[in-house]
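Researcher: We're teaching a course module on how sequence relates to structure. For the next exercise, students receive a sequence and then see the predicted structure as tokens, so they can try to spot secondary structure elements on their own. Here is the exercise chain.
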Amino acid sequence: MKNICKLNSFHKTAIVLLKCIERKPGIRYRQLLRKTNLINSVLSYHLGTLEKSKIIRVNRSSYSRTSYYPTYVSKRDWDVIEYISNSTSVQIILFLINRNYSPKFKEMVKHTGKAPSTVSYHLKKLVKARIISVNRDNFHRYRLLNKSRTLRILSKYS
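Model: And here is the predicted structure for the students to work with:
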């Protein structure tokens, strides 16, 4: 763990939190509550201490989602990391990585086994995050925008 040497003066709870965040960059507040069994105020206090000390960085999105990252994780990678924590998004990304062509929407629905509305929801979010693009011809066809970057992040953080 890269930041542990800075934590000599911190409480053991802060060290446990940092280890959780380093194991799973992009972890959300609720996930930390469940993993650590801490009460809300204690978790909030220690996360605030880690953030003020610049040991972690916090992404507060417009959707009231708060994600926590070790400082060594690039902000450029946050958008992909946010989506690889969801299994449906990962299924879609892996499906696109393994194709030499741009598959149609129906192919992705069939591959994931999810409802079309669920797949559509995740595709829209992935397009908005600029992880994939859509060609709106007669059939909606999808492709990864930066395959090598996405593969690097998947292998490093999932």
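Model: If you want an answer key for the exercise: The first helix runs from residue 12 to 23. The mean pLDDT is 87.
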